[in-house]
Design a protein that fits this description.
The chain has about 750 residues and is an all-alpha fold. It is built from 37 helices and 3 strands. The protein has a 3-stranded antiparallel beta sheet with strand order 2-1-3. α25 runs antiparallel to α27, α30 runs antiparallel to α32 and α34 crosses α35. The protein is elongated. The N terminus is likely disordered.
Length: about 750
């Protein structure tokens, strides 16, 4: 039986054993003929070899599929690696139409794409497919030199192919764009794997690089005006991109999660998954819980009404450059995101919600870089924003204390009456605030117009008098006379130094808040270590000012105890206004216009008294409102929250009035008028020359001379270096102050 079987196996299955050989082997086994012992041994050896080969062939026959058997006709050529290096003449003998071969086939250069390992498809989704299932025009061999594009829609991937044909990639392909991707460009050719396979091009950890390699080649702008190349880098640095490439998370959003795989559409196409009306659904595929909250919010409800202006995920989070929503940077920037929609004037033409927020303390410090102040989302919520009348809203009257208490632990029913979006320009909705603002506008206008004209006329008259009296000797300093007249005690000078020190400190740390939208304000706040540090310094200078206030009134009290109260209240030493001050003021204007009858001033002039009382009253106003704003929880036990709105207006405008007056009018009266230029050093040294006292304050000079007090007030002249130091300090202070005024004016005129 074995003799009958083997030839049959050899002839039809093994291929190397002929029927005659099988017949000879059968004869040997029967013992016929003259084989002998040696022949028998050889026959047994041959039988052993046949047994081994038979078992191997049977094993291969079991492993090979029908597709393998069918594909053997293709791999006879394409399964041999040397096909890539064949000469052009050999390639021509392998195709049915050698005349149609492209130019590359006529050049002796490697073509690695012709080689496909026979096992290339074994562990992929196409393991059971034959070559001609995709390469239909290779059914007959030899096939043509140029095969058509392999088809994926011939009964296998018809839905995906239909979706692809509706996408922008197919459109680019139809326009003969050689960068347009086809099926194999994304999924691979013979190396295709299911997308859950780590080796697959479509695996979540691989697909982003696949898309990026192509889209980095794009130039120009997208339909929404963005640079195409920047999209790739923006995504790679985003929270999604970093989650994939950095953390290796396969659940993070990739390109195909948002743009889909086959029917990729431009974002302005209503069918696109990235069209703004589809964005919540697209993002909701991953962020399902957030989508549910958003859908119930006022934004989500507005979108459901087919309002394309309703904000969607990408309006706040952006599309490709998404950052962690928990970072300080994101939370600070969210104000600007909200402002894109809420920067529209109110119904009565007032400021927008964004603008009123920006002008509030919260908005000012946020604009300057603080991460601590409340932003839109802290009060209104994020995805759960509801109308204020909604009982679920964070800003509903029943929930407001809890919302404010997230930052202000001592918040109470009074506290939450604060109006975060109050507009003091709006007299209809905020009449009290508007009235306070209007008062300061009138006060500042009257003050600056009166003293501005006063200073200008004084400057003109002084220049005229200097030109008219050219023979008059110049101002005599104490050093020239060898002695001086004492005018201020050491306490007075220390008191003034502290006032100047705190005033400059409060100005430099406070003005950036009022002009937080200006570049110079940001630079100044940064120079102080950031707006939070500037706030600490501001409070420090406020404490020093309060201490100085106590020192001043303590000194006043001691003077009242040492001297006659009548002398200090109604006499020439009083700082209270007198009728003489009115006459002196009128006399100065007469002198301005006629050059005759300049008033004879005594210890204090009317403008010096104005400076004094402006400083005292201004300190009380600014200090009082500053304490209210510093300790709102404490003061809310006494006043309603809208009192802090009033305090903010008063504090800011009183500060601007003080800064504008001191750095212009006061500087002119004390230092910049021709008689004193460049600096009046009396407040530094405490003394004046007798000649200056006689010329500037003739009434005081003659009174002191008549009473004999003048000689007792003579002291040695101060060293010359004090004069030099006074000039350096004074000029520096005036340069800083006047620069600040210039910046404020330019900001007010919107010129910077």
């Amino acid at each position: 039986m074995l003799g009958l079987i083997l030839p049959d196996i050899g002839g039809r299955k093994l291929g190397f054993l002929s029927r005659g050989a099988g017949l000879r082997l059968r004869l040997c086994l029967r013992g016929g003929g003259s084989v002998g012992r040696g022949g028998l041994i050889r026959a047994l050896r041959l039988l052993a070899i046949l047994a081994v080969l038979l078992s191997s062939a049977h094993a291969r026959a079991v492993e090979m599929t029908d597709a393998d058997i069918e594909n053997k006709r293709c791999f006879n050529c394409h399964g041999q690696s040397r096909i890539t290096d064949l000469a052009p003449s050999e390639w021509r003998t392998m195709v049915s139409d050698p005349g149609s071969m492209d130019a590359r086939a006529r050049v002796a250069e490697p073509r690695p794409g012709l080689f496909t390992p026979p096992d290339a498809l074994h562990d992929g989704p196409h393991a059971d497919l034959t070559c001609i299932r995709c390469h239909e025009d290779a059914d007959e061999l030899p096939h043509t030199a140029l095969l058509k594009q392999a088809r994926c829609d011939n009964g296998c991937h018809a839905p995906a192919a239909a979706a692809y044909r509706n996408g922008i990639h197919a459109e680019a392909l139809a326009d003969a764009d050689d960068r347009a991707p086809g099926c194999a460009d994304c999924h691979g050719g013979h190396d295709i794997r299911v997308k859950t396979d780590r080796r697959s091009r479509m695996y979540p950890l691989n697909v982003n690089a696949l898309c990026a390699d192509c889209h980095k080649q794009h130039n120009g702008l997208t339909t929404n005006g963005q640079n195409k190349k920047q999209y790739v880098d923006s995504y790679m640095q985003s929270v999604h991109g970093q989650a994939v490439s950095g953390a290796g998370l396969i659940v993070a959003a990739t390109c195909v999660d948002c743009h889909r795989g086959h029917d990729v559409q431009p974002s302005n196409d209503e069918n696109a998954s990235t069209h703004r009306m589809q964005i919540p659904d697209t993002c909701g595929r991953c962020h399902e819980g957030i989508k549910e909250v958003y859908t119930r919010s006022i934004h989500g409800q507005t979108l459901l009404e087919d309002d394309s202006g309703a904000p969607v995920c990408t309006d706040c989070h952006t599309a490709h450059s998404i950052t962690h929503a928990s970072t300080d940077t994101f939370n600070r920037d969210i104000v600007g995101e909200c402002g894109q929609c809420h920067d529209k004037p109110s119904d009565n033409g007032g400021l927008s919600l964004y603008e009123t927020y920006r002008r509030s303390y919260h908005g000012q410090v946020t604009e300057l870089g603080s991460y601590r102040a409340a932003r839109c989302s802290d009060c209104h919520g994020t995805h759960d924003i509801r109308p204020i009348a909604d009982p679920v809203s964070r800003l509903h009257l029943n929930n407001r204390v809890q919302t404010c208490a997230a930052c202000h632990k001592s918040a109470n029913a009074n506290f939450v009456q604060f109006m975060p979006h109050a507009d003091f320009h709006d007299g209809q909705r905020y009449p009290l605030l508007h009235g306070v603002w209007l008062y300061f506008i009138i006060l500042m206008t009257v003050t600056f117009v009166f003293y501005g004209v006063h200073s200008l006329l004084w400057l003109i008259r002084s220049l005229i008098e200097r030109r008219r009296h050219t023979t008059r000797k110049a101002r005599v300093h104490p050093q020239a006379q060898g002695y001086a007249i004492k005018r201020f005690r050491k306490t007075n000078r220390v008191n003034h130094a502290l006032v100047a020190f705190t005033f400059f400190g409060l100005t430099l740390t406070g003005m950036p808040l009022l002009f937080s939208d200006q570049g110079w304000a940001k630079v100044l706040a940064g120079a102080l270590g950031g707006v939070d540090n500037a706030g600490v310094w501001h409070r420090f200078f406020a404490v020093i000012l309060g201490i100085n206030f106590v020192i001043h009134f303590t000194g006043m009290y001691k003077r009242f105890r040492r001297q006659s109260a009548k002398l200090l209240l109604v006499g020439p030493y009083t700082l209270l206004p007198r009728m003489k001050d009115v006459y002196d003021c009128l006399g100065m204007f007469r002198w301005f216009f006629t050059g005759r009858g300049k008033p004879a001033f005594d210890r204090w002039t009317y403008w010096e008294k104005f400076d004094y009382w402006a400083e005292i009253i201004g300190t009380l106003i600014i200090g009082g409102t500053g304490l209210m704003l510093w300790f709102p929880g404490l003061f809310s036990l006494l006043i309603p929250g809208w009192g802090f709105n009033v305090a903010s207006v008063i504090h800011g405008y009183e500060a601007m009035l003080a800064v504008g007056f001191i750095f212009t009018i006061h500087f002119f009266n004390a230092n910049l008028r021709p008689e004193k230029f460049p600096v009046d050093d009396v407040i530094f040294t405490g003394v004046v020359s007798e000649d200056e006292l006689r010329h500037e304050r003739p009434a005081e000079y003659h009174r002191l001379k008549q009473t004999g007090e003048l000689s007792a007030m003579r002291v040695p002249a101060p060293p010359r270096w004090q004069r030099t130091a006074a000039i350096v300090v004074g000029v520096t202070a005036m340069a800083i102050g006047m620069s600040m005024v210039a910046l404020i004016i330019l900001a007010g005129l919107r010129l910077i």
